[in-house]
Write the structure tokens for this entry.
Amino acid sequence: MKKSLLLLLTISTFYCHQLKAQDKSVEEELTEVDSLYREDQFYLGLTFHLLGDLPADVSQSGFSGGLHFGFIRDIPINKRRNVAIGIGAGWSINTYGQELFIGNGENGKTVFSSLNDVDYNTNRFSTQLLEAPIEFRWRTSTATTNKFWRVYAGLRLGYMYYSKSTFRDADNRITVTNIPELDKFRLGTTLTFGYNTFNFHVYYNLNPMFNNAKLNEESIDMSVFKLGLMFYIL
């Protein structure tokens, strides 16, 4: 009987030590994860564009929207790792529907005119950009969950490497590429907020779309307000 009790006590002591060792191992593992995890993310954005600062004779017409894709590297700056700086690289394609005709004139100069009283089928210009988002990031994330609230605010730098204007009516189709009056260097503010995969995204440009472009002696500036959804993929 004593031998049985002694054997049971030995086995119980052994299992207690094993359980403590496992708990310690799990705790160390979680501590290690907590000290290393980042929210490095691919992003995919879909936006609708509202145009402002247009000349008096020009209005927004038709669809204006964009597609945005890239990767952001997360750099946590606090111990809990829920506050971070995000730096990334991406690509953006945008289209703008409006009543501003863009064509080629004499001596390679660009011609701008209003289509306010013109019957036409299509008039829009599109751009493609390389972008570098820089964000201040706050979230409720932990090392063991990928569903959390987030608020990301920052700047987005861009370089417009391609542009094209397309006009089409019943008799003509006019295409102009690499419009020189467009400001190729873009700078805008961004705000993204939401939960888990679906997040609202807002962008507003800080510099006008055009440089040294005029319509009837009125400067063509054009500002862009983008509103849409941003999807993050870990």
Observations:
- The first strand starts at residue 41 and ends at 52.
- The longest helix spans residues 2-34.
